[in-house]
Design brief:
There is one protein chain. With about 260 residues, this protein is α/β, with parallel strands linked by helices. Helices cover about 30% and strands about 15% of the residues. The chain has an eight-stranded parallel β-barrel with strand order 1-2-3-4-5-6-7-8, surrounded by six helices. Helix 1 runs parallel beside helix 9. The longest helix is centred in the first third of the chain and has 14 residues. The protein is globular, with a radius of gyration of 17 Å. This is Thiamine phosphate synthase/TenI domain-containing protein.
Amino acid sequence: MALPQPPLLLVTDRRQARGELVAIVCAAVAGGCRWVSLREKDLTEDEQVALALRLRDALPDDLCLTAHGSVEVARQAGLDGVHLAAGGDARGTRERLGRAYSLPPCGGGLGRGVMPPGEPPAPLGAPPTPSPSLQGGGEQGVPGFTGAPHTLIGMSVHSPDEAHTLNPGTVDYVIAGPFAETASKPGYGPALGVEGLAAIVRASPVPVIAVGGIAAANVGVCLAAGAAGIAVMGSIMRAADPAAEMARLVAALAGAQPRGR
């Protein structure tokens, strides 16, 4: 499926946040963000679901809200997708989410406007009942597979080899990084740089999102290397003015010349 527009993913981290997380995310959305992933892995599953629901209630309906790492958080909170760690089970994730809901496009939420009021989602073990337009995974579908085509499924990669093995029928995009040194994850492996990012882009069958040390000044460099978009965390979480910082990134993205898919 197509990436949210603009292709700029905000990953949350309340431990770095200068203020209350929901308020910071809302400010970033006011600055032009339309894609947010909840990444609060130190919280329990129930706490993540509760926070996801607070975000969903506070954010516009057309915003794509996903969960980092947890299929259950996405399923229970009715989110728009999941971002998996490198080597994650994308096919199984898509199937599990597809068995829980009949899905609208990303930005509509897995459950919003789908289940009758007061009726719980179907259990994960129940047979799926997709319409003919909801067959397969990804845009083209996987023969013989009934899943959730409108669920956005992403995966982290750190090398061309990891990117090369991906199935575009079940994975919609990858996040590659760190592009540059980053304060959010100090010591998190060597920076890819332009050549490393470009190598992953060449190997990947799906769009590549650059992450790690991303700033307005290097957005154009990332896109010139073939990235389809960017992801940010600390620069927004720590910003004195998240809306203004996000607006600068959105403007830089709009002004760059994209070469990625």
